[in-house]
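fyi for ur records
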Amino acid sequence: MLSEDFNISEDTGKVPAETRSSSDEPQRRIVHVDLDAFYASVEQRDNPELRGKPVAVGGSRERGVVAAASYEARRFDVHSAMPSVTARRKCPELIFVKPRFDVYREVSRQIREIFYEYTPLVEPLSLDEAYLDVTENRKDIPYATQVAREIRARIWEETQLTASAGISFNKFLAKMASDQNKPNGQFVITPEMGPAFVESLAVGKFHGIGPATARKMNEFGIVTGLDLKAQSLDFLQERFGKAGTHYYWIARAVDHRLVQPDRIRKSIGAENTFEKDLVVFEEMKAALQPIVDKVWRHCEQTGVRGRTVTLKVKFSDFQQITRSRTLPGYVESRLRLDQASVDLLLLLFPLNKSVRLLGVSLSGLNTDDESESPQLSLEL
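which gave:
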């Protein structure tokens, strides 16, 4: 049985200055709250005919992507970011529902108001999840587990939606803990549990380590957190760059990142460094497709839209350039994002050197506070 709460001992390891917080800071209690199958659950709540049935929020067309799947659909291995054609093949009875992001944003706003009743230190990650630092909370509740339990009860009472929560002494472990008892549960990772918990995980399960990085780690014989912990800082930095430092410390259950309230994302993007430099336009156009897919997938999952499309290009000699286009309105389809990205790429030809990296990003987001007047422009 897990203890109701925990004390956090001071870390005596040498932590990099950029990740180290003040040595006299209070022992931290971090809660990660994650709404269960958020978009699909809202649709089932609002339409009783969908309850108990496999539901996917997203487009059913050929290039559609699942933004969220109900737990009934997940039993068929349908999940977010899956192509809609694949989802329908796995679950022929799957019901597709068009997303209603205005509704999801309003429900998300309601839930954040609940968070703020407990702490001003709320860091939203998306419409359906957030970190909360409840070390010192507005209700003077001594136990983080009790705070999480109350918040989950309030969310159900006010929205009829369930949420899961992870409680720990840092953000990384709180995030990992929230996945342990889904749906509608919570889990705590104490300082005593932290190192062993991390060591037992497959690196592909680490928050922040995607499939491509996990495959690369596996090639080096790094399969579990224990394998990752066995690597030197130099080894990880040499092979994974700046991220190597982060991997080194989270393998030791160390994460001193603070909860950042009112964090506003100014852009979303993705990029890819190619194993072989590209020289032909058609090759680059094809290489852009998975990058555009990744950016649009984030747009579909979060409801975020942007007006400025930026193409990033890094050449074989490591020279880097960007080209941007601001559209009259928000990019509302993957096709429009793809067209704008390919148009920017086409403007660069003919090229006199090969390309080692391409990236696509969106800015001028509908989450920005600025209310710029939309206008068509091209930066070259």
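Residues 38-100 form a domain with the MutS, DNA mismatch repair protein, domain I fold (CATH 3.40.1170.60). thats all i got for now
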